[in-house]
Design a protein that fits this description.
Blueprint lengths: L3 H4 L12 H10 L6 E3 L6 E4 L1 H19 L3 H25 L2 E8 L2 E2 L3 E10 L5 E7 L4 E6 L4 E9 L4 E4 L3 E5 L6 E7 L4 E5 L29 E6 L11 H6 L6 E5 L7 E4 L8 H19 L3 E5 L2 E6 L2 H13 L9 E2 L3
Parallel strand pairs: 4-12, 15-16
Antiparallel strand pairs: 1-3, 2-11, 3-5, 5-8, 6-7, 6-10, 9-12, 10-11, 13-14, 16-17, 17-18
Helix pairs in contact: 3-4, 6-7
């Protein structure tokens, strides 16, 4: 009579996970992000190209002919060409070995644009480097490095959403000198790019800014009555300039309108005042467009994002701080704004 142990099927070894070999292959080339990398024999890989394989097949055919017909010159030709191919392998390896990569950085971009990560290749062995291709996530370039000098390379990646974008992995490869070998190395730069929200297009008019020919502000908190004309100050909005008074003075005196309770054109861009139907990203896109326009007009403006607030100011520093706050809003990282009091 069969027991439970007799009825149990024999143990079978677990089948390998699908794609296991491919996963191990990719894991072999995976490296942590590095601020700098000095290329050496542990980080440079070599494989023959299609031209190299065809060249090897040609050498084999020539060798068979030389052996079959006892051609001493044929043997000499095969050995000379084979030696040249072997020397080209060492020359290509030396073309990458000793290169130092570092200094990766990128300027902020808007969502939907290409982020350009720039880094430096420096020769550490007083040897000129030729025909080096640098490939990134979106396209690549070719460069050379002078002996004892350096060269700037750029890799690009598409910024699909706001926030931080990590630098793509850079592939450096060369076929120097004959194109018979593909010699390459991989580097993951420890750099990231700040991605601003894509500005709304077309952008709506700024809130609280007066009509160009009127004496009253339009909408927003700046609906105070016109008070008086004052001397123009750098940073005043062109919409506040009294162009008719300027014309009456024959271009001698430039004045700006001052409104009761106005602080000279300060604006507040408040996410809470925008329609909820826009959604979070829609509101951020509209605020981004307003920040860009207000900066172009030289206005002083502030930004409110929930409990975060940037006080009114103008200039490139204010623009960058506001765009940074918009880029990182809700992502668990501070955008540089101060916490507003309750």
């Amino acid at each position: 009579m069969a027991t439970d142990s007799d009825a149990r099927p024999p143990d079978t070894p677990p089948s390998p996970a699908p794609g296991g070999l491919r996963a191990r292959w990719h894991a072999f080339f995976e490296r942590p992000a590095e601020a700098e990398l000095l290329l050496g024999h542990r980080r440079i890989y070599t494989l023959p190209t299609r031209a190299g394989l065809a060249f090897a097949a040609l050498l084999c055919a020539l060798l068979l002919l030389a052996v079959n017909y006892e051609l001493s010159l044929g043997h000499a030709l095969v050995f000379i060409l084979g030696s040249a191919a072997w020397v080209s392998l060492h020359q290509g390896f030396a073309n990458l070995s000793g290169l130092k990569l570092g200094g990766a950085r990128a300027e902020p971009v808007f969502a939907g644009e290409l982020a350009a990560f720039e880094f430096t290749l420096t020769d550490t062995r007083r040897r000129a480097r030729h025909a080096i291709s640098i490939l990134g996530a979106d396209g690549g370039m070719r460069t050379r490095v002078p002996a004892g000098g350096s060269s700037v390379a750029i890799i690009q990646a598409r910024a699909t959403r706001r926030g931080w974008l990590d630098a793509p992995r850079a592939t450096l490869e060369t076929g120097f000198p004959f194109g018979l070998w593909r010699i390459w190395s991989l580097w993951q730069p420890a750099a990231r790019c700040l991605v601003y929200p894509a500005p709304e297009a077309p952008a709506l008019p700024l809130p609280g800014v007066e009509d160009a020919e009127g004496d009253q502000p339009v909408g927003g908190p700046g609906q105070e009555a016109f008070a008086h004309l004052r001397a123009y100050q750098p940073g005043d909005s062109p919409r506040r300039i009294a162009w008719r008074a300027f014309a009456r003075s024959d271009g001698q005196q430039l004045s700006a309108r001052q409104f009761e309770g106005s602080t000279g054109g300060e604006l507040w861009f408040d996410a809470a005042s925008l329609p909820g139907a826009l959604g979070v990203e829609g509101r951020l896109s509209r605020l981004t467009a307003w920040v860009i326009e207000a900066d172009a007009l030289g206005l002083a403006y502030g930004l409110r994002l929930g409990t975060e607030a940037l006080p009114p100011a103008s200039g490139p520093a204010q623009r960058d701080a506001c765009l940074r706050a918009l880029a990182l809003h809700g992502l668990g990282e501070t955008g540089g704004a101060d916490k507003a009091g309750a």
